[in-house]
C-alpha cells in the first residue's frame, strides 16, 4: 500500500464511520483514504488480505506477492475486490490485478503453458 495516503486524526479503522472490513482482510493492512483535499465521495478504506504466497524469483531480489485487495467507500459505492500479484515483472514496478473470474482463468492458462513447456501437452 502507498505510505503517502494521509492518516487524519479521528479516522481509526474501528470507528463506526468506517466501512465494514471484508471477511478476507487482515487489520494490519488497513489503509484509510481520507485526505484533507479528497472529495467526500472518494473517502473510504483500502483493505488487503494476508499474503497468500510470497517468493523471490531466481533473477531478482524483489519478491512476488499474491494477495486480495479491495476498497470500501464510506458512501457504499464499492469497487470489485481483486486478486493482486505484485513484483511479477523483474526489474520493474509491475504487477497484475484481476477480478476473480479472470484470476482463475489466468491460473489455468499459466498451468497449461507450464505443461506445454514441460512436454506434458
Automatic annotation (TrEMBL):
Residues 1-45 are annotated as: Disordered. Residues 1-11 have a biased composition (Polar residues). Residues 31-45 have a biased composition (Basic and acidic residues). This is Uncharacterized protein.
Amino acid at each position: 500500500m502507498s505510505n503517502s495516503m494521509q492518516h487524519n486524526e479521528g479516522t481509526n479503522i474501528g470507528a463506526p464511520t468506517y466501512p465494514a472490513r471484508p471477511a478476507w482482510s487482515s487489520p494490519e493492512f488497513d489503509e484509510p483514504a481520507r485526505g484533507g483535499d479528497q472529495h467526500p465521495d472518494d473517502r473510504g478504506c483500502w483493505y488487503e488480505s494476508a499474503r497468500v504466497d510470497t517468493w523471490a524469483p531466481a533473477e531478482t531480489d524483489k519478491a512476488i506477492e499474491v494477495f486480495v485487495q479491495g476498497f470500501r467507500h464510506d458512501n457504499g459505492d464499492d469497487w470489485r475486490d481483486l486478486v493482486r500479484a505484485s513484483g511479477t515483472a523483474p526489474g520493474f514496478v509491475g504487477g497484475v490485478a484481476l477480478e476473480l473470474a479472470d484470476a482463475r482463468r489466468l491460473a489455468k492458462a499459466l498451468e497449461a503453458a507450464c505443461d506445454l513447456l514441460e512436454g506434458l501437452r
